[in-house]
Amino acid sequence: MPGKFAKFAVFSLFSAIFLGAAAPAAAQRLQEIEERLQDPPPPRSGLIRAPFSDIWFPPRYFYRPVYYPRHLDRAPAADFEPVTFEQPFSLSGGFHYLYDTKGDLDGWRGEVSFGTPFGKLSSDFTRFREELPPPGGRDYLNLYYADYRVGLYGPEFSLELGGGYTGIRRDENWHGGNFVVAMEARPLRHLAVDAEFRTSMIRGSQISDLKGGVSLAYRWGAVRLGWRYLNMEFGPRINGPEIGAGFRF
After folding, report:
1. Each residue of 108-121: pLDDT tens digit?
2. Cα angle for residues 138, 141, 143 (degrees, 5° grid)
3. pTM of structure
């Protein structure tokens, strides 16, 4: 019995030493992002250095076709023809929670989009929160986007292209431009699959932000389960499952 207790004590001691040594390396990831942003940008070449904030999109917008029968009183159910119409304004948004796979980070994300006859204005804001090693506490970092988009819309599929502004804030503010591609497919009446890829440039370094998910919608509301992968060239990767709720008018 004493021998077993001694082995357990030795194992516990080595485990505590190992975890204590590993904790600083796994922690303070949000601080690492800002510290690397303060360094001079590395020399780069190729298209990745293109000024995304200077990309301009013409003020054109394509609307979803709506199908109706030519003669409601005598046309068969299959006698439909597509008609394009303009929907002047739309409003959509959502609120999401992200849990990082490493377990020391999570984040809350809000998004709002306002559609007009000339395009869509979209904003996305995430507040990341990190649990710090002893003596404890929390660290925070904000990542936010503001974009202008144009799109192609069909009865079961939509595609959007756009660009705009990217910002990061912890103790200081950092900003740059971005380019975004987003799609949504509706294979079933109340089921939607979405994907969005956004690449940003801040101080000569790239941020890749990929989101994908499945939504179950009814009337103006929806619940969504997805995955987000965020790769910052100047900092650690953040990725994990995301759950949220949204609305659309």
Report:
1. 999 999 999 889 99
2. 155
3. 0.69
